[in-house]
């Protein structure tokens, strides 16, 4: 008999007897261990959640939000996120803040969203730091402040939160309404690129291609463009196509140029469509 089945059989009598811890463990078994049964997971999460089990409430809310193992209901998901959030579950606090910020299953309320983001942030939730940073970046729910945005992005970036690494590179790189600082931009872009962020790989590739803050290195730029393009970044596809068209960093190859232009064009990059037209392929 499979170990997963043995554990389920062991948990089942306690779960049926109303033990919320056993109900939660059994739900996790159905949710994460093969053979998976998401409907059974949903039922046991709900039983545990109704008895106040914090983690079960969070997982139940996620299933309701995403329609996994049940019919989706954002409104009910918010109800369970709120119950878990009040029990100081940081993931639930983050998800509740997100629902309030975007008005998903509840009325939009930026003030309350910030309250829950801050509660998750105080528990060290990196995504909460990242979301607070964006609120200060855009001035949504708070006075716009680059200083505060950068503070929160840096806080998350020091924990290697990839999105924050990327945004610091973007902000310091002059892509936002903030004075550019090339050395700072490169520092954060390198970290984000090394972590596999496609947009950062593409941006760093542009620096190497143009010799902006670094020694010009077309071979390195094409390596970065390729890494980003293979993840589906449309601008990296276009730029890699240019490299093949012009023989910069790679051997000139019209077939590969068309290949990457086509991928970029399919994602709506107008420059790629014009480049293909010059090949007579549009």
Describe the structure.
The chain is an all-alpha fold. The chain has helices spanning 3-16, 20-32, 38-50, 54-66, 74-86, 90-102, 110-122, 126-138, 146-157, 162-172, 182-194, 198-210, 218-229, 234-246, 254-266, 270-278. α6 runs antiparallel to α7 (110-122). The longest helix has 14 residues, at 3-16. The termini are far apart.
Order of helices and strands: HHHHHHHHHHHHHHHH
What share of residues are in beta strands? under 5%
Structural class comes to: mainly alpha
Helix tally equals 16
Looking at the structure, what is the overall shape?
globular
Describe how the helices and strands are arranged.
Elements lengths: L2 H14 L3 H13 L5 H13 L3 H13 L7 H13 L3 H13 L7 H13 L3 H13 L7 H12 L4 H11 L9 H13 L3 H13 L7 H12 L4 H13 L7 H13 L3 H9 L4
Which characteristics define this entry?
282 residues; 71% helix; mainly alpha
